[in-house]
Specification:
five-stranded mixed beta sheet; about 350 residues; binds zinc ion; 2 domains; about 40% helix; 12 helices; Nucleotidyltransferase, domain 5
C-alpha cells in the first residue's frame, strides 16, 4: 500500500484527497481531503446540469489538487500513484478529472489508476472500518444506482439485484422536488420526515413480497405526486410516509437478497449517498441483527461522493498491481458486474 492522490469529478462534487494505504485507522488513512459542492450552481435548475458541472470541475480541480497536497505536506513527487474516477457518470465531468490525472501522471512519471466510481462506493466501508473483510453483501444506494452486490474482493462483484426504474436517491430527489424542498433533495426529505407521521398517507410498496430482490420506485414517486396534488396532506406527513414506504421496500428487498446470497458473508454493508440517511441505517441495523450479521455503514461524509473513497479504491487496486495505461477511456456507463443479466421490466419509467 502506498500514498495515493485521489480525484473525483463524476457528478456535482469536485474532490481531491491524499490516502495512505498503510494507515490502520480511518484518521491515518485520510491524510488530507477537500471537496467542493456545486449545489449553488445547479439549484436554480432543480438538478445537475451536465455542462455547468463540467465547467465548474475545470475551474476548481487544479487549484484544489495543489491545496490538498499542501494540506498533506506533500509534493506530487511524494505520491506513489494517481487514482481518478474514470466512470460511470456525467461524461464531461469524468473527462475533466481523468484528463487531469493523466496529465499529472505523465508530468510526474507516476502510475495511473482508473477507478470505477461504484467501486469507490463499494470499498468505502473498508476505508472506514479496517476490520471489514471480504466477502460482504453490499446495498449500494445513490442518486444514480440502486443495487445489491456480493463483494468478494477488488474487482469481484456479483449483482443480486438492481432497480427496474428509478434509483433510491432519485426517488428522494423527486419527492423533494414535488414538495418544493429544492436540490439536493435527500437530506431535506429526511429532515422534514422527522416532523411528520409515517402512517398518515397510504403509499404503495412496489415489488415488496416478490421473490427476486429487485427494486422499483417509479410507482411510489407517482403516488407521492398524487398525494401532493390531492392537497389534503401536510408536506411533513407526505415526506415521512414516502420515506417509510421507501425504507420498507429496501428492507424487504435486502431481506430477500440476504436469503439468496452465497454463504460466508461477513457483514451487511450499506454505501452510496442515501446511506447517509439515519432512518435507513436504523432499519438495516435491525435487519442485519436478525441475520446475525453486523451492519457496516461508513460515516455519512464518506457515503456521499468524495475523493477519499476513490483514493482508497485506487490504493486497494495499486496494492494488487493494477494500474492503467494513459490512454484509458472515460466511460459514461460501467457496471461493476459485467455478467449481470438484464432484468425483466427494466428501463420502464413511470
Ligand atoms: O453517492 P452520491 O453522492 O452521488 C451519486 O453517485 O449519485 O448520492 C447522492 C444521492 C442523492 O440522490 C441524494 O439526495 C441522496 O444521495 N442522499 C440522501 C441523503 N443524503 C444524500 N438521501 C436520503 N437521505 C439522506 N440523508
Ligand atoms: Zn456516487
Amino acid at each position: 500500500m502506498a500514498l495515493i492522490l485521489g480525484i473525483e469529478s463524476s457528478c456535482d462534487e469536485t474532490a481531491a484527497a491524499v490516502i495512505d494505504g498503510n494507515g490502520t485507522t480511518l484518521a491515518a488513512r485520510i491524510v488530507a481531503q477537500r471537496i467542493a459542492s456545486q449545489d449553488e450552481e445547479h439549484r436554480p435548475y432543480g438538478g445537475v446540469v451536465p455542462e455547468i458541472a463540467a465547467r465548474a470541475h475545470v475551474e476548481v480541480l487544479g487549484p484544489m489538487i495543489e491545496a490538498v497536497l499542501a494540506d498533506a505536506g506533500l509534493g506530487l513527487d511524494d505520491v506513489d500513484a494517481i487514482a481518478a474516477t474514470a466512470g460511470p457518470g456525467l461524461i464531461g465531468g469524468v473527462m475533466v478529472g481523468l484528463i487531469t490525472a493523466k496529465a499529472l501522471a505523465m508530468a510526474a512519471d507516476k502510475p495511473l489508476v482508473a477507478v470505477n466510481h461504484l467501486e469507490g462506493h463499494a470499498l468505502s466501508p473498508r476505508l472506514a472500518d479496517p476490520a471489514l473483510a471480504y466477502p460482504y453483501l453490499l446495498l449500494l444506494v445513490s442518486g444514480g444506482h440502486c443495487q445489491i452486490l456480493e463483494v468478494a474482493g477488488v474487482g469481484q462483484y456479483r449483482r443480486l439485484a438492481t432497480t427496474i426504474d428509478d434509483a433510491l436517491g432519485e426517488a428522494f430527489d423527486k419527492t423533494a422536488k414535488i414538495l418544493g424542498l429544492g436540490y439536493p433533495g435527500g437530506p431535506a426529505v429526511e429532515r422534514l420526515a422527522r416532523e411528520g407521521n409515517p402512517k398518515a398517507v397510504p403509499l404503495p410498496r412496489p415489488l415488496v413480497g416478490s421473490g427476486e430482490p429487485h427494486f422499483s420506485f417509479a410507482g411510489l414517486k407517482s403516488a407521492v405526486m398524487r398525494a401532493k396534488d390531492a392537497g389534503v396532506h401536510a408536506d411533513a406527513d407526505i415526506a415521512a410516509s414516502f420515506q417509510q414506504a421507501a425504507l420498507d421496500c429496501v428492507v424487504d428487498r435486502t431481506r430477500i437478497a440476504l436469503g439468496a446470497a452465497s454463504p460466508g458473508m461477513t457483514a451487511l454493508v450499506v454505501a452510496g449517498g442515501v446511506a447517509a440517511n439515519a432512518a435507513l441505517r436504523g432499519a438495516l441495523e435491525a435487519l442485519a441483527q436478525g441475520h446475525g450479521l453486523p451492519l457496516v455503514a461508513p460515516p455519512p461524509k464518506l457515503c456521499t461522493d468524495n475523493a477519499a473513497m476513490i483514493g482508497w479504491a485506487g490504493a486497494e487496486r495499486f496494492a494488487l498491481g493494477y494500474t492503467d495505461p494513459l490512454d484509458v477511456a472515460a466511460r459514461p456507463r460501467w457496471p461493476l458486474d459485467d455478467n449481470a443479466a438484464p432484468v425483466r421490466g427494466a428501463g420502464v419509467k413511470a
